[in-house]
Each structure stands twice: as structure tokens, then as C-alpha cells.
Design goal:
Chain A is of the alpha+beta class. Chain A contains 4 helices and 5 strands, in the order E-H-H-E-E-H-H-E-E. In chain A, helix 1 packs antiparallel against helix 2. By secondary structure, chain B is of the alpha/beta class. Chain B has a single domain, classed as Transcription Regulator spoIIAA, CATH 3.30.750.24. In chain B, strands 1, 2, 3, 4, 5 and 6 form a 6-stranded mixed beta sheet that branches. Classes of the chains: A alpha+beta, B alpha/beta. Chains in contact: A-B, A-C, C-D. Strand 1 of chain A pairs antiparallel with strand 1 of chain C. Bound molecules: adenosine-5'-diphosphate (2 copies).
Chain lengths: 146, 116, 146, 116
């Protein structure tokens, strides 16, 4: 385990209005490292996707659900973002992570693809009926290009 | 989310402002569908100059409008995406299905020309 | 008790770098109501003071301390900010809240004064050795002028 | 925090940028004290044009510099505070002890005139 140099953790009601707050908090936390604007934007997209998924899929938009976002600065200039919900969970994580797979008719199924593209590491743990934990890590400085 | 709209001939120009995420996507969806119906416009131009952020919920709202408009034989184009927004659009493959113009003016000119 | 319409709660390491994050989160949460810029600025100052106090006084700048910020939107368009620490506590709250009172030689003793001026309600609960809880409320729309 | 500094005669002009809170206050304190010593300046002008936020930690850092400079018979002035920053300064009574100019240029002119 890498040493944790700084951390912030928050919980919030599963309301769409709070996604923007999660993004600004993520960008503000990330600013401890000297990312360029494109990297900050990638971090915002990835966090936005994970939190949106918790609200839409995890809790089927029930605002009584509680979403948790934990952000850490790890030794070696690595940022870690963990998004947790105690919602319905994912029966088949491998399938869920495939590009264009979605259980909602109007969704593009690109959330996990974006998280994967914009972060260096992505881990998804889920148990049906108990919830989902998405862990993302990004090393500073970001590697060039997409 | 603020959403400015203008009818130019048979093209509805919509100009969302701010962050096109899950919250904004719902407003966008509703307002654009209503305006398309009320205005009788055939085509849709989404001008993204003032969009600072987009994620897959925002893209989903754009793609949903695309399906509806093309079902009625209309065309949809995008214009003025910032580099950050453009990267997200490209990663999702949007430029493969709809045209992405640099500027709203240029898009309007070409769309009007093609329509006539 | 007023009904809670939305809420966000977070915990963070008692590091000065995290004060900026608390401010942007507070401003982002407050933006659910249509405050003008001056009001948002007042909210940022008040939250900044309470969180700074937790870090400087509550924990004597020990970064192992944990600060909690809980923000709620209550019925009737009232925003509530609760800042909690489990630090050393305040022996005499009434004295501490007096303008210009400070236990640090280089401090101005205006933190509580700012919280009081920029919010509509301020409550401070503290028990020595166990920590301090500061509760601030601001009603929308703000009353005109300071 | 970014901090631009310039020596004009015997006046050190410092221009902090961004948010003058606890984190920034520490940098400000250290850098200004070092520069006052190294430059041999007598007076200090703090130009606040680029300060977007200030709280009592930031004010404390300014007041600390005030004490040091006036102890050595120098003068301290502030310039260019935005309305938001000015409200905080006023609530703390700072204008009662040091002069608050609208613009850096005006402040420099007056300080230089008084010094001569
Ligand atoms: N937090 C979650 N809880 C439950 N199911 C989830 C969660 N996140 C993702 N999923 C499932 O994984 C699928 C794929 O997710 P994603 O790639 O983000 O695409 P989309 O959100 O567009 O459906 C979702 O359709 C959903 O079935
Ligand atoms: N969270 C806290 N924990 C312990 N003591 C506190 C806390 N907040 C305030 N105090 C005490 O109250 C005094 C006054 O606080 P304040 O008005 O903010 O002025 P200042 O921070 O400049 O000292 C502090 O000097 C300190 O002794």
C-alpha cells in the first residue's frame, strides 16, 4: 500500500445537482499537483461518470441513496478517486465494462470507457444488492496524448 | 443550465451554456424537443461555444436528439466545441455520425446550402 | 427541525491545502440557490474561517486531525453549514466569540466575528478535550447590505 | 500562491495573486519579510488587484507585515482591492490604520511624494 499524503472523503445525497459539486471538489483536490487543464478536465469527466453511474444505475435515481467519493494523494504523485454506492450492484462487471454496453435503452454505455481512457487504473468491485466501488488512479504527470 | 435558441429558416440553433452533465442533459432534452415541435424546424444545429464541460450524459442527450431529428429526415450538426469538449466527442465517435464545425456561422451557411 | 432537501458531508485531513477545497465545495453547494456574488463570497469567508479554526486551534495544525463539513439545504431556502473537529475544544465559548479575542499572539481574533457578520445564525458547541462544532445558517435571499 | 514583487525607490511593491487564505498567508509572510530585508526597502505597498479572496488569515498576514514595517518607521499601504476583498478589509477595520488606495499607480505616486 502506498502512503497517503492527503485525503478528502465525502458523502452526499444521490441527486444530480451534486455531480457538479463532486467535479469541482475533484478538480480542487487534484490541483495539489500541477496538472495541465486537459488533465484536470479528464479527471472531471472520469469522476462525473462514476458519480452519475452511482446515482442513475446504483440507486435508480432514488435521492435517498448516499454516494461516497474518497480522494487521496498517494506517495509518488498518484491521485486516487474511490466512488462508492450501496445500491443495486452489477451482476456481471466484465460485461458492464465493455464499450457500448448499457442496461438503459437511452444510454451510450461509454461511462466505463471514459473512466478507463482518462485514468491510468480502473478497478470495479460490485456485489448485487450490496453496492459498487469504483477505484480510479492517475499518475502525475500524465502521459502524453490520448 | 442556460439554453439560448433561435430559428434560422428551417434550422433550429440551440446554444447550451455551462456544464452539459446529467442535470443539464435533462433540461436540454426537454427544451430542445419542445422547441423542435413548436418551431416546426427540420434541422438542428447545436452550438457548443459556451459549453465548458461534457460527459457521457451530455453526449447521450445530443445523440438522443440526433435519433429523433434524423428519423424525421432532418440533419443535426455540432459547432464550436472547445478542445476539451471535442476530445470527449471524439472519444465517443460522434464525428463519425454528425458533422462537427469549427464555428456556428460556417455550420449555418453549409446547412442552409445543403438544404436548398 | 426543518426538513433537509439536499445534503453533502465531508471529512478531510486537517491540512491548510484543504481549506480552499472546503470553500469551493461550499460555493458549489450554495449555488443551488440563486445567490449573488457578494453572498457567495460571504459564505466562502465564513466557511473558510470555521475550517481554518478547526485546523489551527482545534488540532494545533496536526494534519492527522479530521475536519468535517456538513452542508444542508433546509426547507424554506436556508443553507446550513456545520464544521466539526474532534480537537482540543474551547474552554470558554462566550469569551472566544468576542471580537478581537484570540489565544494566538499573531491572530486577529476576528474569525467568529466574520462568521457572525456573514451568516444569519451562528451556534458554537464545544467541550474541552473532545472538540468543537460550529453551526452556521444563512437564509435566501440574503438581507440587503452589511 | 503567486507573488510578484518590485522595488520602486525605497518602496517594495508586492502583488499577491489568487486566494489569500491560511495556506497563502504563510508564503506571503515569508516571502515579503525576506524581500523587505534583501531589498533594503523602507515602505511596503500591497497591491491587491489580483486577490480574489481574503479571510482573517490573509488579513493577519497583512497586519503582521504592518507591525514590522512601522516598527522600522516605514509606511504600509494597500491598493486595488475588489469590492469583495474591500468588504472584508473594512469589517476588520483595516482602513482605520492603513491607507487603501483605488489603484497601485495612485498609491505609488502619493507614497513617493510623502517620502520625499
Ligand atoms: N454504480 C453502478 N451500480 C449499478 N450498475 C452500474 C453502476 N455503474 C455501472 N453500472 C452498470 O454498467 C453499465 C455500463 O455502465 P457505463 O459504461 O457507465 O454506461 P452507461 O452508464 O451509459 O449505461 C450500466 O448500464 C449499468 O448497468
Ligand atoms: N475549532 C476550535 N477549536 C479550539 N479553539 C477554537 C476553535 N475555534 C476557535 N477557537 C478559539 O477561539 C479563539 C477565537 O477565534 P477566532 O475569533 O476565530 O479568532 P482567531 O482564529 O484569530 O484566534 C481562538 O483564538 C481559539 O482560542
Amino acid at each position: 500500500m502506498k502512503k497517503r499524503l492527503n485525503w478528502v472523503k465525502f458523502q452526499f445525497a444521490a441527486r444530480p445537482e451534486n455531480i457538479a459539486l463532486a467535479r469541482v471538489a475533484a478538480a480542487s483536490f487534484a490541483s495539489q499537483l500541477d496538472w495541465n487543464l486537459a488533465d484536470l478536465d479528464e479527471i472531471k469527466v472520469a469522476v462525473s461518470e462514476a458519480v452519475s453511474n452511482a446515482i442513475i444505475h446504483g440507486y435508480d435515481r432514488n435521492p435517498e441513496g448516499v454516494v461516497e467519493l474518497e480522494m487521496s494523494l498517494l506517495e509518488g504523485e498518484v491521485l486516487e478517486f474511490i466512488v462508492r454506492d450501496s445500491g443495486k450492484g452489477i451482476p456481471d462487471v466484465k460485461q458492464a465494462m465493455e464499450p457500448a454496453f448499457s442496461t438503459l435503452p437511452d444510454s451510450m454505455g461509454l461511462g466505463f470507457t471514459f473512466m478507463q481512457s482518462f485514468m491510468d487504473e480502473l478497478e470495479v468491485e460490485s456485489s448485487p444488492g450490496r453496492g459498487t466501488t469504483v477505484t480510479m488512479r492517475k499518475k502525475f504527470p500524465a502521459e502524453a496524448g490520448v | 443550465m442556460l439554453l439560448d435558441m433561435e430559428l434560422k429558416g428551417n434550422i433550429l440553433v440551440v446554444r447550451p451554456e455551462g456544464e452539459l452533465d446529467l442535470t443539464a442533459a435533462e433540461t436540454f432534452r426537454k427544451k430542445v424537443d419542445e422547441a423542435m415541435a413548436a418551431s416546426g424546424a427540420l434541422h438542428l444545429l447545436i452550438a457548443l461555444e459556451k459549453v465548458e464541460f461534457i460527459d457521457s450524459s451530455g453526449l447521450g442527450a445530443i445523440l438522443g436528439r440526433y435519433k429523433q431529428v434524423t428519423d424525421r429526415k432532418g440533419r443535426v450538426a455540432l459547432a464550436g466545441a472547445s478542445p476539451a469538449v471535442r476530445r470527449v466527442l471524439e472519444l465517443a465517435g460522434l464525428p463519425r455520425i454528425m458533422k462537427l464545425y469549427r464555428e456556428e456561422k460556417e455550420a449555418l451557411r453549409e446547412m442552409a446550402a445543403e438544404a436548398s
